[in-house]
Design goal:
This protein is α/β, with parallel strands linked by helices. It has six helices and four strands; from the N terminus they run αααβαβαβαβ. It has a four-stranded parallel beta sheet with strand order 2-1-3-4, with helices on both faces. The structure holds pyridoxal-5'-phosphate.
Length: 191
């Protein structure tokens, strides 16, 4: 029985509630829940890699994708500290706030670049300019489709940008909502 009838589309929740198969899997797992789940972890990585047609070493499991967003910010902050360089995070605004919130909590500066008026698309040129004008490492957090605007970033523009970016510009593509996309022009960044 759902206690909250709201469909919170910006929360990446399954508003239909937990599937019976998922409930059963959770209950079945209780019997082995006293062990660290190393074998199950490896099995899950193998499955996720296969579904996404990547190698197992390209998969990082997190407790939710928030953990992976945090890891990327932390990893680049460590790299910058090691190399004595500056580091900044560049985000469109508005977008899913976790990269910004985590970066701010560890004193990494965050530059917010407003979405384009009317189309709500990312202002890629301005985002790029913020990085070009910065002396150090930049991480772009790009949520595609974007939460909360549901807008898609043009694949060709994105490819051209990533393809010509210098190696101190990093891209974090968050495709948490990609399964909902019906627009055939959307292409996952996995490739
Ligand atoms: C765009 C986006 N990315 C990541 C997350 C984090 O999801 P998780 O629950 O997997 O940490 C959310 C959650 O709302 C989200 O909207």
């Amino acid at each position: 029985m759902l206690t909250n009838p709201l469909i919170e589309l910006n929360s990446n929740e399954n508003s239909l509630g937990m599937a019976n198969s998922a409930k059963k899997a959770v209950i079945d797992a209780l019997d082995i829940g006293f062990r660290y789940p190393d074998d199950q972890r490896v099995a899950l990585i193998t499955k996720v890699a296969k579904i996404n047609d990547v190698t197992e070493s390209q998969i990082s499991l997190g407790s939710g994708s928030s953990e992976n967003i945090r890891t990327v910010v932390q990893m680049l902050q460590n790299k910058a500290l090691r190399e004595g360089r500056n580091f900044q995070v560049i985000v469109p605004h508005p977008t899913f706030a976790y990269a910004e919130l985590y970066a701010t909590s560890i004193n990494v500066p965050v530059v917010k670049v407003a979405l384009m008026p009317e189309s709500y698309s990312f202002d890629l040129q301005n985002m790029q300019k913020v990085a070009d004008d910065f002396d150090g490492i930049s991480l772009f957090y790009l949520c595609n489709p974007n939460n909360p605007t549901a807008t898609i970033t043009d694949t060709d523009e994105l490819k051209a940008w990533v393809g010509t970016a210098p190696d101190h510009h990093y891209f974090l593509l968050d495709e948490a909502y990609s399964e909902y996309v019906t627009d055939p022009s959307f292409e996952s960044g996995i490739a």
